[in-house]
Amino acid sequence: MVKILLLEDDVSLCEIIEEYLSDEGYEIDACDNAKEALELAYERHYELWILDVKVPRGDGFSLLKELRALGKNTPAIFITSLNTTDDLKQGFDSGCDDYIRKPFELAELGIRIKSLLKRGFSHKKEDFEELGEGFKFSLTSQNLYHFDKIIPLPKKETMLLNLFLQNKNHFLSVEKIFEELWEYGEEPSELSLRAYIKDLRKILGKEKITNQRNRGYCYVGS
């Protein structure tokens, strides 16, 4: 079943949308603030996000920007009363795939969802790297899964795991890792790197990531 995250702080409208989409055969997780939406979108897998913009504890534009920065590419639709051209531009600049101005007909929302999901399923299929013991990493969405449950990772640990998988069975120097993980202006930290390695080993197994003096670190995979 297609799972959709719905962020809408108008209780009546949220219930109406949730009931309509449930009747259409979708599984809905609804929330009313940006902080909870961020946590749900980060921890769970959805085929679509439907986001209001003017919500408590943040706003939809900033929320989507943060999720895109974390490598999350789930299709997103904004539903909002903001209706100027500048608002529309800001919405698409933050990474949305569609933008619906309130008020709207539920049938219109349904049509746009079907169109977006059709494009998403045909162009955004997940490319998984199997890691053993039920773990797999999506090279598409940058999510780590244990069977079908997302295992939340901090941003730099996600980037590090992705880097290791792109260079499987090859040693990466500490300098190379610093270059890839730390942005311009950030101060690289070997202590932080060791903590990221330790956390990944706890999840995947100590034997998965080896290290040698003067050579760096290596992800061991088949």
Automatic annotation (TrEMBL):
<dbReference type="InterPro" id="IPR011006">
    <property type="entry name" value="CheY-like_superfamily"/>
</dbReference>
<keyword id="KW-0238">DNA-binding</keyword>
<keyword id="KW-0804">Transcription</keyword>
<dbReference type="InterPro" id="IPR016032">
    <property type="entry name" value="Sig_transdc_resp-reg_C-effctor"/>
</dbReference>
<dbReference type="GO" id="GO:0005829">
    <property type="term" value="C:cytosol"/>
</dbReference>
<dbReference type="InterPro" id="IPR001789">
    <property type="entry name" value="Sig_transdc_resp-reg_receiver"/>
</dbReference>
<dbReference type="GO" id="GO:0032993">
    <property type="term" value="C:protein-DNA complex"/>
</dbReference>
<dbReference type="InterPro" id="IPR001867">
    <property type="entry name" value="OmpR/PhoB-type_DNA-bd"/>
</dbReference>
<dbReference type="GO" id="GO:0000976">
    <property type="term" value="F:transcription cis-regulatory region binding"/>
</dbReference>
<keyword id="KW-0902">Two-component regulatory system</keyword>
<dbReference type="InterPro" id="IPR036388">
    <property type="entry name" value="WH-like_DNA-bd_sf"/>
</dbReference>
<keyword id="KW-0597">Phosphoprotein</keyword>
<feature type="DNA-binding region" description="OmpR/PhoB-type">
    <location>
        <begin position="126"/>
        <end position="221"/>
    </location>
</feature>
<dbReference type="InterPro" id="IPR039420">
    <property type="entry name" value="WalR-like"/>
</dbReference>
<dbReference type="Pfam" id="PF00486">
    <property type="entry name" value="Trans_reg_C"/>
</dbReference>
<protein>
    <submittedName>
        <fullName>Two-component system response regulator</fullName>
    </submittedName>
</protein>
<feature type="modified residue" description="4-aspartylphosphate">
    <location>
        <position position="52"/>
    </location>
</feature>
<dbReference type="GO" id="GO:0006355">
    <property type="term" value="P:regulation of DNA-templated transcription"/>
</dbReference>
<feature type="domain" description="Response regulatory">
    <location>
        <begin position="3"/>
        <end position="117"/>
    </location>
</feature>
<dbReference type="GO" id="GO:0000156">
    <property type="term" value="F:phosphorelay response regulator activity"/>
</dbReference>
<keyword id="KW-0805">Transcription regulation</keyword>
<feature type="domain" description="OmpR/PhoB-type">
    <location>
        <begin position="126"/>
        <end position="221"/>
    </location>
</feature>
<dbReference type="Pfam" id="PF00072">
    <property type="entry name" value="Response_reg"/>
</dbReference>
